[in-house]
Amino acid sequence: MEVVIVPDAKAGGELVARGIADLLRHKPHALLGVATGSTPLPVYEALAALARTGRADMSQVRIAQLDEYVGLPSGHPESYRSVLLREVVGPLGLSPEAFMGPDGTAVDLPTACAAYDSALAEAGGVDLQLLGIGTDGHIGFNEPCSSLASRTRIKTLTQQTLADNARFFDGDVDQVPQHVITQGIGTILEARHLVLLATGKGKAEAVASAVEGPVAAVCPASALQMHPHATVVVDEAAAGGLRLAGYFRHAYANKPEWQGL
Ligand code: GLP
Fold it and tell me: Could you give the CA distance from residue 205 to residue 239 in angstroms, rounded to a whole number?
């Protein structure tokens, strides 16, 4: 696992966007796993700026959704599909056909979950999966004590996540769906490169557990320790709980140029 400490969220967004642009130079039709929440927004903004100036070729990229609320009507502005159409597909000028995601409105949810896992595999697997982290250490919507081998399935949100996400639903926790579909931790670990971005003091404890704590289902993001190519990009505030911050800074300052992100 590589930990990169950046000055702020904007710098983190630019670093990750440059990494995605590099990937697209080598593999223009890469399958990019995208996340929602506030944290990845600077990545999408930086990527759109690279695309506008001809430094990222988004013409063949395909994108895959990480998770989705269950039961929001199709087209609801806070469904993750709507959020990603608004924040990623539109600004990057992608065609909606290049975008795949789980169906949170399906009548038969277990079948829809299994179908999404199969669709990801049939698409050749995710090349780079962008991840945020919940304050309780969740990735996607894999809440604490999710199986580290889990596949795409239905989960029930914790009270903490419901409260965290209420800001997208007029601050009303009762409007946040209790149930979600999420790529499982086992599914996420199949992506070729995992890039977790965390910014702000509120994420410091979760980041410290994920990076320096034991690999344990109680902190789902700690599963990244088992991945051969995982990059954790944190701003100074989110790095606040890391004991090895000095080492991470030293390693990154001396990183050979050819290694890329
Ligand atoms: C949600 C999403 C996660 C995201 C998390 C953190 O629960 N399902 O993918 O990482 O929120 O969101 P934020 O980046 O807004 O803190």
Answer: 9
